[in-house]
Amino acid sequence: MSDETSSGDFKKEYSRYIWFKLLFISLFAIATFAVFWVSLCVGTRDLDVATVFDYFIKHLQGVTYEPRTQEFFDDSIVWNYRVPRALFGIISGAGLAISGAIMQSVMKNPLADPYTTGVSSGALFGVAIAMTLGFSFGGAGLSGVGTVANALLMSMVPVAVIILFSPFFRKSPSTLILAGVAVSYMFNALTSILLVATDEENLATVYRWQVGSFADLSWGSLPLMTVAVVAGIAIILPLSNKLNLMSLDDKDARSLGLNSDRLRILCLVILSFIAASIVSYVGIIGFVGLVMPHIVRMAIGSDNRFLIPGSVALGAFFLTSCDIISRALDVQAEVPVGVVTSFIGAPIFLYLIVRQKSGVW
Amino acid sequence: MEIRIEDMAFSYASDPVLDGIRLDIRGAQFVSILGPNGVGKSTLIHCINKILDPTAGKVFLDGKSVKDYSLKEMAKEVGYVPYASSDTFPLSVVDTILLGRHPHAGWKTSDEDLEIVYDTMTQLGIEDLAMRPFNELSAGQHQKVMLARGLVQRPKVLLLDEPTSNLDIKHQLGISRLLKHLSHEQGILVIMISHDLNIASKYSDSIILMHEGTIFSVGTPLQVLTRENIRTVYGVDSDIIDDGGRPHLVLKDLECDECRPMPDGSVCTSDL
């Protein structure tokens, strides 16, 4: 066989290798589209897919219904409650998974997740301030908006502290993780001081937020998070080939033309903003950011050019599916989605770890 | 291709590592850097390819100061093969080698990139490993993949930090022979750090011998690898025999005054 033929065979094999990755991403993108419609059917009012599709399209066409009719209530349920909630599941799942994938790559650490820099501890402190002291930033009040404002602002404090102090220490992954741990402990201590002195009702509210829940979401919850996630993906995807170099030693990456320190800080800012925008509305949803990127790595490898869109697709599919399950389990009480993600995801992940033959980590 | 270093020094905080380094290397040749542990060999090559910035003096690449190169421009001129590569999230072999195309390539892998990678893998005899995970390879295969990553940078200068350290003698000879071939056939200036004096002597066109953060001697293997130089730099006695016009070292056992009167048969380690 000539060299030219062998080279051609190699290119074909590489092409198949790439197509497999694209197929994986496409399958989960389609699956996410499917669960979006299923999500619109699940709840106290039982509706089939054809009916919700009909309401959805008619609403887009501007069709309105006579108040207090069944159609009026069904349209309201679908459009005002279920559509924003399903979209929230898709966007927050995508956002948490991409944040986890980036954090693991830039920190070179399989245990890193979107909260590694202390985003969640800052947000929790913000919520605790609102609940226990009755204080909200900007005088937004103690309604949902005030609590969200507190959580969002305080969640950005840890990453701001890390970036402000970064000129004074080495910006190696280990140093940044340790700085994040230090800031988290400080916020956790402050939160504990507030919580030990508060009443049972406030404690329960803070705890529910800590577990992560999709209850009480509306259209108003979507814009900030959507902008953060979409802008984050738009910035990170073109940088994903550089993220591959980040998994090397910083010296090796530098020898291949990359200043790892700068890219690491840029990524931290982007992913912290994504995580903060999600955590402020729904609380701390664990597992998605930590584990979805690993499942994608097992399936299609660690090339960030495919890992990032793969994590977006799988994260969106997984979190939306978990929300459906949380509502299907108990329509009235609604098991918090954060509990479902861990309950379903952990056994699946354990099974994949046991089955794993080739080296992913 | 020319590398010129003028009065270069490098320190970590207040710890001086290199001092008064002057060097002029020209043309496509195979150069070995030798010297004891901690003498500053790796630091020297890190200062050449801008991984580290010298604390004093200048490094020139083809007459242009390395300070005036961007990291990407430098990566197009100088390839680097590290001692070991971290693999927290290992890629496939082909993707690992493709990382070497980063200075030249865009986001998408082009046909040209794939051709360069395939040609290099074929040259090193590792084309069958293309789709294997990098972390499942043997030490020898691992080293060849790292070398391939450096070569696909299509550099004018290739720096290697102990590329044969984990290899058996057959692979050590094979890689060293290949590096010499590459320097002569492809016109690359290859600079390799090594601890194997005899392999360096057998294949190198020039040798740089380092001692206490300075360059102790530069020249052909015959000029540099003398009994006196080895005694001074390594503190080891040796006999030098001729091996086809190149020096071959036969090392003698360590001896010191404390060793001789040890009646209990224990081994003296005072020189270590």
Secondary-structure content class of chain A: mainly alpha
Rough outline of chain B: globular
**Over the alpha carbons, how many angstroms does the gyration radius of chain B reach?**
20 Å
Oligomer: heterodimer
Blueprint of the fold:
The complex is a heterodimer of chains A (361) and B (272).
Chain A: H1 3-41, H2 49-60, H3 70-107, H4 119-133, H5 144-165, H6 173-196, H7 200-211, H8 222-236, H9 240-246, H10 250-255, H11 260-282, H12 288-300, H13 304-329, H14 337-355
Helix pairs in contact in A: 1-3, 1-13, 2-3, 3-8, 3-11, 3-12, 3-13, 4-5, 4-6, 4-7, 5-6, 5-11, 8-11, 9-13, 12-13, 12-14, 13-14
Chain B: E1 2-12, E2 15-26, E3 30-34, H1 41-48, E4 56-61, E5 64-65, H2 71-77, E6 78-81, H3 93-98, H4 111-124, H5 139-151, E7 157-161, H6 169-185, E8 189-193, H7 197-203, E9 206-211, E10 214-219, H8 221-224, H9 227-234, E11 238-243, E12 246-251
Parallel strand pairs in B: 3-8, 3-9, 6-7, 7-8
Antiparallel strand pairs in B: 1-2, 1-4, 4-5, 9-10, 11-12
Helix pairs in contact in B: 4-5
Walkthrough of the structure:
The complex is a heterodimer of chains A (361) and B (272). With 361 residues, chain A is an all-alpha fold. Chain A has 14 helices and no strands. Chain A has a single domain, classed as ABC transporter involved in vitamin B12 uptake, BtuC, CATH 1.10.3470. Chain A is 75% helix and 0% strand. Chain B is an alpha/beta fold and 272 residues long. Chain B is built from nine helices and twelve strands. In chain B, the strands form three sheets. In chain B, strands 6-7-8-3-9-10 form a six-stranded mixed sheet, with helices on both faces. Chain B has a four-stranded antiparallel sheet with strand order 2-1-4-5, covered by helices on one side. A two-stranded antiparallel sheet of chain B has the order 11-12. The longest helix of chain B has 17 residues, at 169-185. Classes of the chains: A mainly alpha (361), B alpha/beta (272).
